[in-house]
Amino acid sequence: MNNMFRLDGKVALVTGASYGIGFAIATALYKAGATIVFNDIKQEFVDKGLANYKEAGIPARGYVCDVTDENAVNELVATIEKEVGVIDILVNNAGIIKRIPMCEMSAAEFRQVIDVDLNAPFIVSKAVIPAMIKKGGGKIINICSMMSELGRETVSAYAAAKGGLKMLTRNIASEYGEFNIQCNGIGPGYIATPQTAPLREIQPDGSRHPFDQFIIAKTPAARWGEAEDLAGPAVFLASEASNFVNGHVLYVDGGILAYIGKQPK
Ligand code: NAP
Ligand code: GCO
Question: Does residue 17 lie within any of the structural domains?
Answer without folding.
Answer: yes
